[in-house]
Amino acid sequence: MVGVNDSAGAVASTPGFAEWSFPAAPDSVRQARELVREALVDWGIEAVSDVTVLLVSELVTNSLRYAKGPIGVRMYFRPLPESGGRALLVEVSDPVDDPPRERAAALEDEGGRGLQLVAVASRRWGTRRGTVGKTVWFELTLPGPGEPAR
Description:
The chain is an alpha+beta fold. About 30% of the residues lie in helices and about 30% in strands.
């Protein structure tokens, strides 16, 4: 089952649902990547592991740049009624009210491409305000038996 270390708190973890809270500290990005990858392996959906870990890393890094409070990561399955399949929904929350903004990064810019990456690599994505802060989410279509990841 998904493990936790001293600085990342597992709020909940069951097959098909996991939620963690991380401090606004540089090591949280690495911890989030490790826990997300471990959960996806436990759930048997390694096919979307690399892209999920990459996008979580981007969003947690964005939160870390601006947030002084805890960063939440939540993952769960949701059905896709139109196809009969299912999707993995991933949410990253922080206490900053301002939503992130996509921007056009110049070739020499070292940053500014995270949300573009999320938009291109996910089925769909968005943001929503909470009672405190905001959540940025993305959705990945899960492959069916014998199908490649998309």
